[in-house]
Amino acid sequence: MVEQKSFLYNNRWLLGGGGILFFTLSWLFYCYAPLEGHFEVDSHAYDRVARIFLETGTVKDTAGVPPIHTQGYHFFLGILYWLFGADNVGMVIAVQILLAFLSLLLTVRTAFLVGGSVCAQIVYALGVLDGAFLIYPQFILAETLLLFLIALFFERMVVFYRKRKNTALVQAGLVLGFSLIVKPTALFLPICFATCFAILSLFYSHGLRWTQLFIFCTTLYAPVVVYIIRNGLVFGVYTFSSLTESGLFLYFSASMLSKLHAMPLDASVAAVQALADRKYTSSEFGYWKLMRSLFFTLLWEHPLVVIQIGMQNLLKTFFGLFSVQLQLLFDPTIQGKVLPFFSTNGSLFIKVWSYAQWAFRSPLIGVCMVLEFFLNGIRWALVVVGIQKLWSEKSYELLTFFFCIVGCFSIVTGFFGAGRYRITFEPILLILAAQGIESLYKIYKRIKLGASKKAAGL
Fold first, then answer.
1. pLDDT value at position 358?
2. Helices (DSSP H) in 164-252: which residue ranges?
3. I need a labelling partner for 275 at 20 to 30 A (CA). Which of 164, 221, 288, 343 fits?
C-alpha cells in the first residue's frame, strides 16, 4: 500500500496530464460526432430493450422470447436512462468515458503489481491514447462495461497470484461471472484454465490447488446459474444465450458459403436465414438444429476453408484497427458498410490500396488508421519481448494466465473476427508491451555502458 501511494505521488504530473489529455480528447470526440454516430448496428437493440426496462421495470423483450444477447448491458443502460432520461445520450457517454478511465487505472495497477513502477508508467502513457479506452466509450455498446469488468478481473487475479489471497480469487470469479451476463466471451475460460494448469503441473509446482480452481469456477458460474433460472421464470426457457450459436452456426456458415460461392457476406447471411425461416417458422429449437447441421456438413466437406476463414478472423481480431470506429462515429452513413479487407477482390496490393482509399474518406482519420496499423505491428513485437522477459524471470503462473486469457478470448472470435473483440485482452497486451519496452531499454543501457567502458579503456 505504501509503495502504491508513493507511486501515485511521484507520478502525479504524469497521471494528471494523461487524465486531462484523455478527457479532453473524449470531449472533442463527443462534440464533433453527430448524435446518430453514437449508435452502431447493435446499439439500437440495446436502446430498445433499455427503453422497455424504463417503461415496464423489466428487461423482458416484447417478443416474449429470450433475446440473442445476454441482458447485462441492457439493464445497465436502462438504469442510466432511469437516472438521466432516455434521450440524454450525453450522460450515458460521460458515464462510459469514466468507466473507461477507471479501466485504464485498473490496468495501471495491474501493471504495477506485475512489473513495478516503470511498467505502470509505460502502460498509462500507452493507454491514454489506446482506442479501446478512448474510442469505444463513444458508442452505445457493451464493450466499455465489459472492458471495465475484465480489467477488474485481471487486477483481482494478479493480486491472487502475487499475494495468494483467496478472497481476491473469489472476487475475480464473481466479477468475471457478471461479465458473462454482459457478453459471454469467458464462458469456457475455466476449462482452458484447468487444462493449462494441469499441463503446467507436470513440469512446475505452481502452488495453485485444485480446490482453488473449484472455488473460482463456482463463483464464476454462480451469476450464470442465477441468470438461467431468471430466464426460465420470465420466458419459460432455461437458457443462457444463443449468441455463441449465432456466431458459429449462422455467421461462420455464411462466411464459408460466401467464400465457396464468391458471394457477398450479407447476401450469404440472408440466404442462410431464409433457408432456416422457410423450414422452421415457429420452432427456435428446429432453427438452431438446422444451423448446426449446415455448419457440420460444411466443416466435413470443406475443412481447409474452415481453417482459412478461422485464421482470417483471428487476424482481424489481432490486427483490426480501433480507429475504424472513428469513421463510423463521425460518418454514421457508412454504418454496416465498412470495407472488408479479406473479401476485397484482387492481390494483396489491391486489397491494401482499396482499404487505404476507404480509410482516407477523412484524411485525418486515414492518417490515424495508417499510424495505428504500423504501431500495431511494433506492439506485437514488443509483446513477444515482454513474454520473453517474464519467462526469464520465471513468472510461469502469470504467463500461463495471460496465455489462457488471450487464447480463450481470441479463439471465441474466430467465427467473426473484428478489432473490437480484442478489447477483452487489450489490458494484457498493454502490460506485455510495456514489459517489452522496459526490457529493450535495459538492453540499450547495457550496450551503451559497455561502449562507454570500452571507449574509456576499462
1. 63
2. 166-182, 189-201, 210-235, 243-245
3. 343
Please return the burial class of 418, using the count of CB atoms within 10 Å of its CB with bins 0-12, 13-18 and 19+: middle
Q: What single string gives the DSSP state of each residue in 243-262? A: HHHIIIIIIIHHHHHHHHHT
Contact 432, 402 (CB under 8 A): yes
Q: How many CB atoms lie within 10 A of CB 163?
A: 10
CA distance 290 to 429: 39
Could you tell me the pTM of the whole model?
A: 0.87
Which tens digits make up the pLDDT trace of 294-337?
777 777 877 887 788 878 888 888 888 888 888 888 887 766 65
Phi-psi region of 457 (alpha: psi -120 to 50; beta: other; left: phi over 0): left
- SS3 of 142, please? coil
SS3 assignment, position 63: coil
**340: DSSP letter:** P
pLDDT in tens, 163-201: 878 888 899 999 999 998 898 887 777 777 777 766 666
Please report the sign of the dihedral spanned by the C-alpha atoms of residue 246, residue 247, residue 253, residue 257: positive
Q: What is the pLDDT of residue 370?
A: 81
- Do 355 and 344 meet the contact criterion of CB atoms below 8 Å apart? yes
Q: Comparing C-alpha atoms, which of 333, 366, 342 is closest to residue 418?
A: 342
Hey, what's the cell of 335? 454504418
